Every structure is written in C-alpha cells, then in structure tokens.
C-alpha cells in the first residue's frame, strides 16, 4: 500500500508547486489580493497533505492498517475537494463553490483522525 501513497504525494507535491508558482507569477495582478490569498491557502493545504501522504507511504511499509488506507484516501479526497474548490472559486468567481470547501476540510480532519487511531492501535499491539 506504500506505492499509491508515494505516487499521490508526488503528484500533489508537483502540482502544488506548479500552482504556487502560477499564483505568484501568473495570477498576481489578475486576482484581487483576497482571492490570491484564498488560492495560496489551497496551495498550502495541498502541499502539507502531499507531505502527509508521503509519511503515510513510509508508515505503510511497517504497519498494515485499514485506517492508514482510509487516512490516505481521505487526504486525497480532502486535497481535491478543499484545495480544488478554492482554486475553482478564485479562478471562476463562482462563490457557490465555497460550499464544497468545508467538505474537503472535513475529509482532511478525518484523515488525521484515522492516522491517530492507526498509531494508537499499532502502539497497543506492541505491548
């Protein structure tokens, strides 16, 4: 299960850096400062969770856990929904896309919860 997490981490890391550069060089002056900040928030969360997926890939080498798989799936869904909705909101100006953002944030939070539960269970098995 390690390989899919690392592949997702690489994809989201690559696209996060590319989108960050796009925001810094291509969107400055085209978006309002508020929308540029919103776009950059999407990039930040994408990059943080790309690193989280990379960490899950490393953990998956040592732990076999459905909770780790769930965490990875939730992180990926969260990136797509949270960051993706922020990108689309800022580029399209369609404010209703902001309704999707909390769903993505909930996925990210649930992913961290699954990771914590996986760690808790792994620690209790080692005793």
UniProtKB/TrEMBL annotation:
InterPro entries given in the database record: DUF423
Pfam families documented for this protein: DUF423 (PF04241)
Domain of life, per lineage: Bacteria
Intracellular or extracellular location(s): Membrane
Membrane topology, record value: Multi-pass membrane protein
Keywords: Membrane, Transmembrane, Transmembrane helix
Positions of transmembrane segments: 44-62, 74-94, 100-120
Family listed: Belongs to the UPF0382 family.
Name this polypeptide is given: DUF423 domain-containing protein
